[in-house]
Design goal:
Shape: globular
CATH class: Mainly Alpha
Distance between the termini: 50 Å
Mean pLDDT: 79
Strand order of the largest sheet: 1-2
CATH topology: Amino acid/polyamine transporter I
Low-confidence stretches: 1-20
Structural class: mainly alpha
Order of helices and strands: HHHEEHHHHHHHHHEEHHH
Largest sheet: 2 strands, antiparallel
Number of domains: 1
């Protein structure tokens, strides 16, 4: 893993100056991060606080936020791999950084985990967007026919619409071509977060008191309570998933100033803002509904009026998740297509670009590999979403799978390698304890969430 990859970095950077310029700044990075962080996870936070109670609920949100920000700082410093002979080479993705710092075996293990994670995130976004589409129909139905009406709709049609939109958007060559989509999606995330927060406040004011308890919702058995707590922790972990795309975002930033300085600033702003939103949405949602807090704040019991505001909020969710799907898909697309291209460098099906011009839209380039592979991927995630359309359970499982390996283990191991931290020093012991504690919490969340998903499928 020595000179060859570093030389490749140098050649890539020289080529970049003639082909494309990185123009991102702290605010485009903030838009990307917020698009990636404030996703479907925010909608379950009131339910999470309800399971954990007024003390443990907010503490868990802040705890995961602090860990995510610490991990982000470690990853920001891994973007440039130091080398005394060739200078710092760029790691354009998380997987490249792992390969350069930890070697081929770790890179292969990482590759499997991150591809599963990215795929799982897009499945979760597919499910959530479908739930929001259905919620718009239900709120209109309840408004027109009354709350006692039977307003049930099939999800399959909505899944197919979302999949069709993603097939079109997935033809964008890379993440640099969807900065506009991330900005729109970030605005939408603020909009529906404010609406969820505002509706919670309105419910508290209308009822005149704050619901909930210090220990959360009671259950008939201790085992059931533990399962719900573990699922809540998994849901909160899922609400902070952007470590998997951090370096792809960092690779869009112009330099100077150095990319790690800009990315640390953007990460601090984004995590601070989103955590405040999370605390407000989760807290006021629980305060409004208490033990009746729904799994999805904007599509559960109680928020039927004003129906037009519910429709608007769910429309914002859908638009945001359209952008979020692309933000998590593009790194997966880039990695898979890069590997295929490296293996078959002279294949016309892989390399050739065809220009198309349709009425009313600018001309665009179409690649057959991109068209076939990305279409197949969107179809796959759509089918999985149709098969497992369970909101809280799915995001709990994905939080359990993603959080520890990608947010804790690999950043810490790369830090040890790059800083030459010796075993059994104070810093080494503290980070090892940190890693073990987070592993135990994550496994607890994962086991409970898997059990919940199995139970939901069997019902």
């Amino acid at each position: 893993m020595g000179e060859a990859p570093l030389l490749l970095h140098k050649e890539e950077e020289e080529e970049e100056s003639f082909v494309t310029m990185r123009t991102g700044n702290v605010w485009t990075a903030v838009a990307h991060i917020i698009t990636g962080v404030i996703g479907s996870g925010v909608l379950s936070l009131a339910w999470c606080v309800a399971q954990l109670g007024w003390i443990a609920g907010p503490f868990a949100i802040v705890f995961f936020a602090a860990i995510t920000l610490t991990s982000a700082f470690l990853l920001c410093d891994c973007y440039r791999t130091p080398d005394p002979e060739h200078g710092p080479g760029r790691n354009r993705s998380y997987s490249e950084a792992v390969a350069m710092s930890l070697g081929a075996k770790s890179a292969r293990a990482f590759g499997v985990i991150i591809q599963i994670s990215l795929c799982g995130l897009t499945v979760a976004y597919t499910i959530t967007s479908t739930i929001s589409k259905r919620a718009i129909q239900k709120s209109n139905c309840y408004h027109n026919e009354g709350h006692e009406a039977t307003c049930e709709y099939s999800d399959t049609y909505f899944f197919l619409i979302f999949g069709a939109v993603q097939i079109v958007l997935s033809q964008a060559p890379d993440i640099n071509n969807i900065q506009w989509l991330s900005i729109v999606a970030a605005i939408m995330s603020f909009a529906y977060s404010f609406i969820g927060f505002g509706l919670g406040v309105a419910q508290v004011i209308e009822k005149g008191h704050v619901k909930g308890s210090l220990t959360g919702i009671g259950t008939s058995s201790g085992i059931e309570k533990m399962r719900l707590i573990s699922q809540a922790l998994g849901d909160i972990a899922f609400a902070y998933p952007y470590s998997v795309i951090l370096m792809e975002i960092q690779d869009t930033l112009k330099s100077p100033p150095s990319e790690n300085q800009t990315m640390k600033k953007a990460s601090t702003i984004s995590i601070t803002v989103t955590t405040i939103f999370y605390l407000l949405c989760g807290g006021f949602g629980y305060a409004a509904f208490g033990d009746a807090t729904p799994g999805n704040l904007l599509t559960g019991f109680g928020f039927y009026e004003p129906y037009w505001l519910i429709d608007f909020a769910n429309a914002c969710i859908i638009i945001h998740l359209v952008g979020g799907y692309q933000l998590y898909s593009q790194p997966l697309f880039a990695n898979a297509e890069r590997r295929i291209s490296d293996k078959y460098p002279y294949n016309g099906f892989i390399k050739n670009e065809f220009s198309f011009k349709l009425p009313l839209i600018p001309a665009f380039q179409l690649n057959l590999l991109r068209l076939c592979f990305r279409t197949a991927y969107v179809v796959f995630t759509t089918v999985i979403g149709i098969t497992f359309p369970y909101f809280n359970e799915v995001i709990g499982v994905m939080g359990g799978i993603i959080f520890w390996p990608l947010t804790i283990y690999f950043p810490v191991e790369m830090y040890f390698k790059q800083r030459n931290v010796e075993a059994w020093t104070k810093k080494w012991v503290m980070l090892r304890i940190f890693t073990i504690v987070c592993f135990l919490v994550t496994m607890f969340a994962l086991v409970g969430s898997i059990e919940g998903l199995i139970s939901a499928k069997m019902r």
